[in-house]
């Protein structure tokens, strides 16, 4: 059963890693899927409908971040390898590149099945420590998983956006507040920088060292109400009502 988009691969592949004890999040620093377990290195999975040269190049680029990079593609109903190749040849190709390969077989009447064609080899290119640290920090700073891996046309819920939303939430019920006061409520050390940069236009400076919520900020609280509820800041209809009247 042919899929229409690589986003359909995200659910089965996410479940595959969660069954192995990993925490999984989508679209982290341009990586379709990132899985982590404890303090271990991140596993990166790039999703595509089929195995292509651009996908292989993308996988090689991800090796700058970690040695545990997988590609995940749909397994056609006929089960044959692409380009009239043998699966052993595909396995050898990925091995030489230091990449793992997963396939996802979709059925009409039962759940998709994820298979392992090969694991990443011990090939260890030179990693970018700075990029790896930023990837790991973004993963750990995010609360929950609100992005579907493989999507490109949706606003990403980044750790920065989450923090800005929390700041906006605490500003909605007051006329103004200082960065220091808001820092105590939000728990974010970078609260002042978020207010000053005002990346999304959600805040307004009123006088010296004080900020309030802008009209765009109020709209954002309504738009992201489900996210705020998941973060434990809103509770159902009662919480929505408070946003409508703020």
UniProtKB/TrEMBL annotation:
Return the InterPro entries for the record. DUF2161
Q: Which domain of life is it from?
A: Bacteria
Provide the protein name: Uncharacterized protein
Q: Record the organism.
A: Paenibacillus larvae subsp. pulvifaciens
